[in-house]
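Re: beginner question about structure tokens

> Can someone show what the tokenized structure looks like for a real chain? I only ever see the sequence side.

Sure, here's an example I had lying around. Input first:
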Amino acid sequence: MELLKDRRVLLVGGAALALAAGLGVALVLMHGAKPPAEAPPASHGGLVVETGRADDTKLDAARPLRCFVSGQFVGETTLAECAKKNGVATGALDVGVDETGALAAADQAGLVLTPLPPPADAVTVAAPAAPTTTPTVDSAPLAVCWRYAGGEWRKQPGEITRNACAQQLYDGKCERPGGATYGRWGDETLRLVPGRVESSSDNRSFHAIIEQGPSCSIPSA
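And the corresponding structure tokens:
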């Protein structure tokens, strides 16, 4: 009873009990905080982001595109709906890019839209021999020449110069006003319009490269 009355003994005992309680809580927390069995997902690899379309030149039947009827824009529809508006079969429509750079379809290419570049498996067809030219010291670059007709690309045999390609495609052909006939030379899109041949490296912006001569002839380079 004497000990309980001693305030100093009470203070020491209280401090000892508080220390013991603190050690117990610390032990419980140490045992409860177990490391995760697996590493977090972020440690397995970096962030992967996929953007864009896998192949923008492949036309999805349900994908809306800009539809033209007789050269007039009539709204965005599917390819089948656009063909119905034009009164033709789906395969009879020309598909390409219009002046805005958007995918579009029309009853004929003309100046309304530019055909998409040819696919890798385009058909190679025999073509008349290009006019022979006198070889020069500085040889012009060579590339594959393509003809666009009937809504499809036709690969011409061999590799020739751009001027020879223009001769092969357009020599003696007089384009009607408001019309256009397309071709390709390498990565360039060629376009015959009344009186001249134009070229584009982006399939949208064209500039004149050859002026037609008498009877719509294509002069030699």
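Each token stands for a local structural state, so reading them left to right follows the chain. Residues 39-57, 132-137 have pLDDT under 50 and may be disordered.
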